[in-house]
TrEMBL record:
Signal peptide: none
InterPro entries attached to this UniProt entry: Mut7-C_RNAse_dom, Ub_Mut7C
Mut7-C RNAse domain segment(s): 90-231
Xref: Pfam families: Mut7-C, Ub-Mut7C
Name listed for the protein in its UniProt record: Mut7-C RNAse domain-containing protein
Length: 245
């Protein structure tokens, strides 16, 4: 390729995406002279969802900027907490992030989740249609132009995934208000109205219940409550919010 040459560097947080020889400060890159800076950045492995400001010779430019010969490009990482203007903050998670989806719902965060692999085009279209931030570890999915917004989930450990999302987006927390199974909202339920759906032992042991207004699932403080309470308490302590049950 005999196009313009630029100098390009990436913020340390982005080094996991770029080839090893691009991780040590500014490096020389020959472009084709017609591709946008956004295309150049993605061609080097960085989804634009993970790129913050793009600086050319120290001044911010749009991703549509076409790099010229001799320019110095700096690719910053996203600011945290990251604002998501234009819609209520809510998420869409791909098939590999079921545990993260349930934990976000446990904290009252609107988190839609596809339990089956419906394919990248369908996920991107759903993100755009419902204006949800797509959460995924699939870099190819995050490069799809149809996405309304997206974010790479950096860890494969649910504890770290949850902390990453809460730190990055700072969603308001309302624990115990959302169904972990379907994402619907919970309402208090009288024991008599849910009695027929309870096991005999549960009916005798518990008196306080909640019910999902969407799927009808019944909740109570059962054997797993202490473990869930620990997840909630840790998140509220670190990121704010108030328990409601």
């Amino acid at each position: 390729m005999n196009g313009p040459q630029i100098q390009i560097s990436f913020a340390p947080a982005l080094h996991l995406f770029v080839p090893a020889d691009r991780r040590s400060g500014r490096t020389l890159l020959t472009t084709d002279g017609t591709s946008s800076l956004g295309h150049v950045v993605e061609s080097l492995g960085v989804p634009l969802t993970e790129a913050g400001r793009l600086l050319v010779d120290g001044r911010p430019v749009d991703a549509s900027h076409v790099p010229g010969a001799g320019e110095t490009v700096e690719v910053e990482d996203v600011v945290r907490p990251q604002p998501v203007p234009g819609a209520p903050l809510r998420f869409l998670l791909d098939v590999h992030l079921g545990t993260l989806a349930r934990r976000l719902r446990l904290l009252g965060v609107d988190a839609a989740y596809e339990s089956e692999d419906i394919g990248d085009p369908a996920l991107a279209a759903l993100s755009a249609r419902e204006r949800r931030v797509m959460l995924s570890r699939d870099r190819g999915l995050l490069r799809r132009r149809e996405l309304w917004a997206g974010a790479y989930v950096y860890s494969d450990r649910p504890d770290d995934q949850l902390r990453d999302v809460l730190e990055r987006f700072a969603p308001p927390l309302a624990p115990w208000t959302r169904c972990t199974a379907c994402n619907g909202e919970l309402s208090d339920a009288d024991k008599d109205t849910v009695r027929e759906r309870l096991e005999q032992g549960t009916e005798k042991t518990y008196d306080v219940f909640a019910e999902c207004v969407e799927c009808g699932r019944v909740y109570w403080r059962g054997a797993h409550h202490a473990r869930l309470e620990a997840i909630v308490s840790d998140a509220v302590r670190e990121f704010g919010g108030a328990t409601t049950r």
